[in-house]
Amino acid sequence: MIRILLADNQPIMRFGLKTILEQQEDFYLVGEVIDVTEIIHLCSEFSPNLLLIDVELLGENCEISLNELFEQFPALKIVIFTNKDDVNTIRKVVGSRIDGYILKDEPPETLIRAIRGAMDGDIWLSRNVINLLAQPDLLQSSQDNDWNLTERETEVIRFLIKGCSNIQIANQLTITEGTVKNHLLNIYQKLGVHSRAEAIPIIINGWGEEK
Prior knowledge:
This protein has 211 residues and is of the alpha/beta class. The chain has 2 domains: 2-132, Response regulator (Rossmann fold); 135-208, Winged helix-like DNA-binding domain superfamily/Winged helix DNA-binding domain (Arc Repressor Mutant, subunit A), CATH 1.10.10. The protein has helices at residues 11-22, 37-46, 62-72, 87-94, 108-119, 127-133, 151-161, 166-173, 177-191, 196-208; strands spanning 2-7, 27-33, 50-53, 77-82, 100-103, 124-125. Helix 3 links the parallel strand 3 (50-53) and strand 4. Helix 7 (151-161) packs across helix 9.
């Protein structure tokens, strides 16, 4: 069972989410909170696997609040479910190694997939979130980062952020899937990570910083 703690200050939204979550046989809702100060208490008491939270509850310093949660509960998965779609908030939050950022205009199936994907180690982002993060003017060139990425590796990363599979990246760049895998291995080595799930937050956070 996936033990879920729900954090949202809108009663109608909580009711709707509770209904959706309780329809899933592998989901178990351990509690609901309307204030961020309650989260630590309930996480300690009920040991949820995943926190489903509206980023607006975290305030302006949302990334600090998230990092504090991860420090206290390192195994906790956190999926953001919100209406907030400004790129600055998204960039800060995704850089805090969250496990998903889903907008509230998505169909319920997307949220369900995001929760299950997060538990499998994947990062789930709404399509509009991906499009915002992948805007060329928000991504610095390979010459402006500290990872010594080649031009081709930078191209691969752009498609990686968009959620493309290895074969999709290969088709877009007119190279073989094996070549894509080699580029990804080099990228992971330069970033000091082992997977897409680890790489994406680092990339977004690093390319989003003001130079």
